[in-house]
């Protein structure tokens, strides 16, 4: 269980989570969706990992996230 916040500071509570860049999360979400990775559409929702996610699918998700971040940096 987790999520991703685009922010410079640590996220320790709702107040600090609200300081995150939700537009940047939206861009990341779109990049991931375009690669077939379905994440929670809001940074304020949780991502769930289960035994259905094998090592191959986790590695693919990480590779897609790296690609998404590279693309976002170019913009």
Give the terminus-to-terminus CA distance.
30 Å
Order of helices and strands: HHH
Largest sheet: none
What portion of the residues fall into strands of 2 or more residues? under 5%
- Counted beta strands: 0
Average pLDDT value? 94
Q: What's the gyration radius in Å?
A: 13 Å
Task: Describe this protein's structure.
This protein has helices at residues 14-17, 22-34, 55-74. The chain has 75 residues and is mostly helical. The mean pLDDT is 94.
Short account of what is shown:
By secondary structure, the protein is an all-alpha fold. It is built from three helices and no strands.
Which descriptors apply to this entry?
mainly alpha, 0% strand, 3 helices, 75 residues, 49% helix
Secondary structure: elements and pairs:
Layout: H1 14-17, H2 22-34, H3 55-74
